[in-house]
Design a protein that fits this description.
Elements (H helix, E strand, L loop, with lengths): L1 E4 H17 L3 H13 L3 H20 L11 E7 L2 E4 L3 H15 L24 E7 L4 E5 L4 H4 L3 E5 L4 H16 L7 E9 L1 H11 L11 H15 L14 E11 L4 E8 L6 E4 L1
Parallel strand pairs: 1-3, 2-4, 7-8
Antiparallel strand pairs: 2-5, 5-10, 6-9, 7-9
Helix pairs in contact: 1-4, 2-3, 6-8
Length: about 280
Amino acid sequence: MREINVDIITNVVEKLCIDSNYYLPHDVKEALQDAVAKEESPLGKDILLDILKNQEIARSKHVPICQDTGLAVIFLELGQEVRLVGGDLNEAINEGVRRGYKNGYLRKSCVEVPFSSRKNTGDNTPAIIHTTIVKGDKVKIIMAPKGGGSENMSALAMLKPSDGVEGIKKFVRDTVDKAGSNPCPPIIVGIGIGGTIEKTTLIAKRALLRTIGEHNPNPEVSKLEKELLEEINNLGIGPQGFGGRMTALAVHVETFPAHIASMPVAVNIQCHAARHREAVI
């Protein structure tokens, strides 16, 4: 049994909060560069070049890519051969978020009682923590700040099994079309199919973390990803909603077995600042 002091986790989370908001992942940067070549609209090309310039400024000057530095979403993979010592795990993560958002000069966007007082918590906590127990003696932490503009455009549908793949496609297309410019395209579209109401939304969000260019290993699901990407890019929304070809950089679909009477489908939209960073302890 390997012991890990939770202070180490706090320090790692602090760094992940800062780095994920400053530095766009390499695969997203490459996808944006490819999008410039594919974009048919001159204005769309200019916008994509501005986005690339913006992320380079953020990288070189060590400042946030976007003023919306998001809610702190943490995916935690905890090895079953790990024994945590020195304090409470969730509090250690939240302390890392507090320090990261303070020391990184990141905007605090978390409010209490969303339907009434909406008082800012002041430190961007509590974090949203998704914990999975896995084999081994390591802890993997993925920090994925999620901005409000893209999250607000995400959606869930409890489709009927008889709706089939065409029903799924229509729901996804309609969701992206309705979103328009709000999630700051070009977007990444995470889709969850199956499970229950909470499972499908979780796998849709987790799908956003997949490396752009990596398709689902299931050929049928991979085919659906490619078809949906083409259909979304035929909507004509374009970069930042000004028209053009490149509405989405990628579509990632994850599936899970479902009840015989159910076919839940979730769409989680991510803006072009598709921020995430991970570390293994």
